[in-house]
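Fig. S4 source data, part A: sequence.
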Amino acid sequence: MRVALGCDHAGFILKDVVAETLARAGHEILDEGTFSDESCDWPEFAERVARRVSAGEAERGIAICGTGLGMAMTANKLPGVRAAVCNDLYTARYSRLHNDANVLTMGARVIGSGVAEEIVHIWMETPFEGGRHSRRLDLLAEVERRHGGKEA
């Protein structure tokens, strides 16, 4: 699977851990930066990741900042993106199973590298359950259309 990966300065070290985890699992990585721990602005990197997913250039995206919150707020502005902050295993599993999240955001100042690896593994491997959840995603897409976005 092709995965867009990005971070701000707070997520720089964890991004390398995530990249290694994805590579070991055989995924193709589109590294959207940042490429150092120098202070930078998280919206820029969240948008790069989300743009790849929104445009269909990546099937999934992962964005890392201090908490994961800013990355999710930004990513969810793009059409068709369903970003979820997952700093625990339960949320990672259900963001995929019930919400078909296509962008994972995590907080490097919230979790350690071991937990991040487990979250990425669970999130990448958990399929969307469909069924009643598909109807809810259709409703979400309708909200997006009513407010100027494209169909999800």
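Fig. S4 source data, part B ends here. The chain has one domain: 2-146.
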